[in-house]
Design a protein that fits this description.
6-stranded mixed β-sheet; two-stranded antiparallel ribbon
């Protein structure tokens, strides 16, 4: 099952065509300079859910937040008006539910799987969600920990402590529209495929664990390899989900970067690759260079 782009209404999956020329450049943090801007900005790749103990910001990332004028996420998660409306944006249009998209046997299989796995939300609510988003709640189970955290929340906390304004590159309404453009039935079939694989001892959970591990190691080459392996039925929507959004962001950043120093934190899958944000910024004349992003954890004795 193909993993969809990070940030799509708090979707927790990293989607990417990612490529780096050297393991020495394995990093999630990149400096943006040149092209007439007076003060550098920084680009950081997030993952929307990981083990709480791994949700740590490096000294370089902390400095980038302190030094910037504003913090940009994919969406403005500090906007209460938008956040209050998120539940409705996660739902399918027209009162559609999962029961409308699957036959009785497949619907029962999905329902039984959700109820057996357990969830913070009842299945009666989840079955009204866009199936891709419902699937993301299952994939959290691949994390080898009980307590999880969102990198965006960690970044927001640090930004607020440093009195930084938080903004979004796009709105949740736009993201909802992107997901609504993918046929719900196709989304439901992908959800069913994931569950069938999990129930038959498939390697979906293994691939997710490898993906989280690659993120922790900031190994973009490995992420690319994993995404190629899991390429499936969503291939026709990659432009809509990923590349078109990258282009929209870079077009917006061309104006923003001339005005202020920014910390831009978006899903890691959006950064590299021929159509990734890094390459697109370079094509616009910016110098985008890797920044050492080594984490330091304090071990309690």
């Amino acid at each position: 099952m193909k993993r969809l782009s990070a940030g799509l209404l708090l979707n927790l999956i990293v989607l990417a065509a990612v490529a780096q020329s050297s393991h020495e450049n394995n990093t999630l943090l990149w400096k943006i300079s040149g092209n007439g801007i007076e003060k550098p900005s920084y680009l950081f790749g997030t993952i929307h859910m990981l083990c709480e103990e791994d949700a740590v910001l490096s000294p370089a990332m902390l400095k980038a937040i302190r030094d910037c004028d504003e913090v940009y996420l994919e969406v403005d998660m500090d906007n209460l008006f938008e956040m209050f409306g998120i539940m409705n944006k996660m739902k399918m249009k027209g009162d559609t539910t999962l029961r409308d998209l699957l036959n009785d046997a497949d619907y029962k299989k999905v329902k039984d799987h959700f109820e057996a796995k357990g969830s913070l939300l009842p299945f009666s609510m989840l079955e009204t969600y866009k199936p891709i988003l419902a699937a993301s709640t299952l994939e959290q189970g691949a994390l080898p920990c009980e307590n999880t955290a969102m990198m965006e929340q960690v970044i927001m906390k640090e930004a607020k402590e440093n009195n930084k304004t938080i903004r979004g590159l796009e709105t949740m309404s736009y993201q909802a529209g992107v997901l609504d453009s993918i046929p719900y039935k196709l989304q439901a079939e992908q959800l069913l495929s994931y569950i069938n694989s999990a129930n038959s001892g498939g390697d979906e959970d293994k691939q997710m664990k490898e993906m989280f591990d690659a993120y922790k190691k900031q190994d973009l080459n490995k992420l690319e390899e994993l995404m190629v392996e899991t390429e499936a039925g969503m291939a026709g929507f990659t432009d809509m989900l990923l590349y078109n959004r990258n282009q929209n962001w870079v077009k917006k950043l061309k104006t923003l970067l001339t005005e202020k120093s920014l910390l831009i934190a978006v899903g890691a899958g959006h950064l590299p690759g021929e159509k990734g944000v890094i390459k697109l910024l370079r094509k616009e004349g910016y110098l985008v260079t890797p920044v050492a992003n080594k984490m330091t954890k304090v071990t309690e004795i």
